[in-house]
Amino acid sequence: MPTRAAITAVHGYVPEFRLSNEVLETMVETSDEWITERTGIKERRIQTGRDQGISVMAIEAVNGLLKKRGIDAEEIDLLILATVTPDRVFPATANIVCDAIGATNAWGFDLGAACSGFLYALSTGAQFVETGKHKKVVIVGGDKMSSIIDYTDRSTCIIFGDGCGAVLLEPTEEPVGIYDSILRSDGSGCQYLNQKAGGSMRPPSERTLEAKEHYVFQEGKAVFKHAVTNMSEVSAAIMERNGLTANDIAWLVPHQANKRIIDATAQRMGLDESKVMVNIDKYGNTTSGTIPLCLWEWESKLNKGDNLILSAFGGGFTWGSIWLKWAY
Ligand code: UT7
Q1: Burial of residue 125 (number of CB atoms within 10 Å: 0-12, 13-18, 19+)
Q2: Could you confirm whether 230 is annotated as catalytic?
Q3: Domain boundary assignment for the chain
């Protein structure tokens, strides 16, 4: 039996403050009815307070994870933080998190793959476990999207929220854990979903601030079209190449960008909606946080050996699917 990487614990953290559709109605020209029908979102969480970066949420999530599994931070070999909203451009927020929790033996880095970030990080971390290089790898996915959202732009401010989740990967010889992944990217999608300034191409300046180039820019319709096609295709592809039918699948764990994208993916896979994790109504789109937050919320309903398909699509474009068997 090959050594596989298995998720052995999951934890999540969402900020207390709730931004409801009703409050958004007072901020931009929108309605609860439009947002609910077009996206499935009712409210999202927002991290408030000065100097509160993504690390604050990540530390909460990882500390909870370690407590649950009953292990010490010093046992962590590697921590990968998937995010597009790091505390700073550098150093990596993963290092800040490791320092704060006392993971003195770990190395770590940030991974930026937008909404597919958690899948990219899970697949990357699994390699270190499968090869025997590491025994305990923490994968964190989270974003403080409110830090890059223009709350006068109704096309983006209704969608995104803040939140973070984390899982622990450990080796197993049992028939559970991560079995397969398909990860894809297409940089030509950059034009439809990006943050125009703040990087080396367009450093911050008065002009970039005036032009609001530090906020998320999205051509929603184009992204929606690509998301429906690619997330559906890659989810069906991972089932087909592993001989899995809808009956074999216990849960689809989809990125939470839009309820209509989730429904289209489930339909293409032939899955009943009772097998689909959906919490977009409560949290909106937390980018790298959506999938671990779903696992966290559904943890008590999961059984050892359950087949899960994790699927995402997002900025880059990036997309992918992972097939795993739940390990506990
Ligand atoms: O997670 C990363 C990847 N991101 C995604 O997967 C997001 C993909 N895109 C989407 O989810 C959807 O495109 C949105 C939710 C962003 C927008 O929904 P849509 O059904 O594509 O709407 P639209 O942009 O085509 O706009 C339809 C109409 C327009 O009015 P007209 O031109 O038909 O009169 C918009 O101006 O709805 C209007 N509209 C709104 N109305 C009320 C756009 N945003 C709003 C709003 N409230 N917030």
Answers
A1: buried
A2: no
A3: 4-175, 179-325
